[in-house]
Design brief:
The protein is α/β, with parallel strands linked by helices. The chain has 16 helices and 15 strands. A six-stranded mixed β-sheet has the order 9-10-8-11-7-12, with helices on both faces. A five-stranded mixed β-sheet has the order 3-2-4-13-5. Helix 2 crosses helix 10. The longest helix is centred in the middle third of the chain and has 20 residues. The chain is globular, with a radius of gyration of 20 Å.
Length: 392
């Protein structure tokens, strides 16, 4: 078993910002030139990680907050979404948490994490007739991840190492030792069919691609990621720092809408599934039946840590610093293709503080009733938490 407990000692930090008048007569020229006039542009992958952005749009929360937003644009892969964001095609998007770390500290892109999009929401899926029931059974196997810079890659490698196995990156035909687990990149939509065709032995990815394989191909969930790292972040809401500074009012209104959407999803899991589905507003190309499975809680017999009472996918927008620090530390031990020297001398605490801009989500939380609306923490330490990881 791997057991990790980290306590965040952060406290609420509000940054003072100058008030900007809505009247163009009082907007300084340097601000006015960059103020957002066109509709806000949102990008997303067809996964439930994007739920808050899509629900905020579908329920009209952006409009109610006074933000003009185009219908979110769906793309197929993390590579396309990241490249589109870097090319300024999207103003606001969800992104796998490690990607903004790579963007800011390796690519020197001034990206900021504004909030968590969700918690948990992913799983390691294997064929129903597979003999894989735990991490120790992955020796000599091929496992797909959606991106090298993903929570999925971090978590699968933690699980692999916990059993004395070695994660490797080799061309799929290469021979594997019995203690090696080969990792490869597949786009989420390609994973279920690759599993069915026995091109891979398993995959770890966001829903609904796990639920889809369960329903369509009789696949089996080996482990939910929220059953490994309790209520972990996965995707986060990001924006370019320059855009944030030039559009603080718009960002605050957008964050208000996103936090409202997360609160609504908690209260209305069935309605969330319908709204997102092709039977509803069509944001995701899946039937309501598949998405309903995602928003239902796992059965107790599917969980190793049954006393955690974790949701298959949960919603809590505040970016706890303890989780950010743990992610950066884990990235330093996670193998990927390409040069990761930028992580070697990265100061974890300073990097975590530099990456996250939490003033907008804190104000949005205050407006919607506070963080305790999302989790049952001690009110005296509401903006701190302990990170718990257990791998059996």
């Amino acid at each position: 078993m791997m057991n990790c407990k980290i306590q965040s000692n952060s406290r609420r930090q509000f940054l003072k910002t100058a008030a900007v008048s809505c009247s163009s007569l009082f907007i300084p020229g340097s601000i006015k030139a960059f103020a957002k006039k066109a509709p806000l542009r949102l990008g997303y992958l067809p996964i439930t990680d994007a739920t808050p952005l899509l629900v905020a749009h579908g329920l009209g929360y952006f409009s109610e907050e006074g933000v003009d937003v185009e219908r979110p644009v769906m793309v197929r892969s993390w590579k396309i979404l990241a490249e589109s964001f870097l090319a300024n095609k999207f103003d606001l998007t969800h992104m796998l948490f490690p990607i903004p770390v790579w963007m800011r500290f390796k690519q020197k892109i001034p990206v900021k994490v504004l909030a968590w999009a969700h918690t948990n929401g992913s799983a390691l899926t294997v064929r129903g007739d597979s003999s894989i029931y735990s991490f120790k059974d992955l020796g000599g196997k091929q496992v797909a991840v959606p991106s090298w810079y993903s929570m999925h890659n971090l978590i699968i490698q933690m699980g692999i190492r916990s059993q004395g196995l070695k994660p490797v990156i080799k061309p799929p035909p290469a021979r594997l030792e019995k203690y090696e687990v080969n990792l490869l990149i597949l786009q989420p939509p390609d994973m279920p069919t690759a599993l069915l065709g026995k091109k891979i032995d398993g995959y770890i990815v966001a829903d609904p691609f796990n639920a889809l394989a369960q329903v369509k191909f009789n696949a089996r969930i080996m482990r939910f990621t929220g059953d490994i790292w309790k209520n972990h972040p996965c995707c986060v809401i990001i924006a370019n720092e320059n855009f944030i500074h030039k559009n603080t009012v718009t960002i605050q209104k957008a964050m208000n809408a996103i936090v409202r959407a997360q609160a609504w999803c908690i209260r209305n899991p069935g309605e969330t599934a319908r709204l997102l589905s092709r039977d509803g507003e069509g944001y995701l190309p899946f039937p309501q039946k598949i998405l309903t499975k995602v928003f239902e809680n796992p059965e107790k017999n599917q969980l190793s840590n049954q006393d955690w009472n974790v949701e298959r996918i949960g919603f809590q927008p505040f970016p706890f610093p303890s989780a950010t620090r743990l992610i950066i530390d884990q990235m330093k031990h996670t193998i990927v293709e390409g040069n990761t020297f930028f992580l070697k001398n990265l100061n974890t605490i300073r990097a975590a503080d530099d990456l996250v801009e939490n003033q907008f989500v804190i104000k949005a939380l205050d407006k919607t009733g506070g963080i305790n609306r999302f989790w049952n923490g001690d009110p005296a330490t509401a903006y701190t938490r302990e990170e718990i990881i257990e791998i059996n």
